[in-house]
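tmp note - HPr family phosphocarrier protein
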Amino acid sequence: MVSRKVQVVNPSGLHLRPAGLLCQTSMKFESKVNILYKDQQINAKSVLNVMASGIRCGTEVEVCCDGKDEEEALEAVCTLIETGLKE
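out:
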């Protein structure tokens, strides 16, 4: 398992469009991809779970990946979050 802390920088947080993009990216990998936020472990492959988390701009989250392509998954998801989820 690998993990990294990142800050959500897009102005609107993880609402529908960025949550969908995050999930699409996560689903490209076999590894489990989770976001740790407060006391929650959020499945990054579920749009509803990501949206329901209420993660806003400026929030620091930890991305955790576990599986045979965990390094690639971690890099892709963290880069996406750090660059503003294309917003």
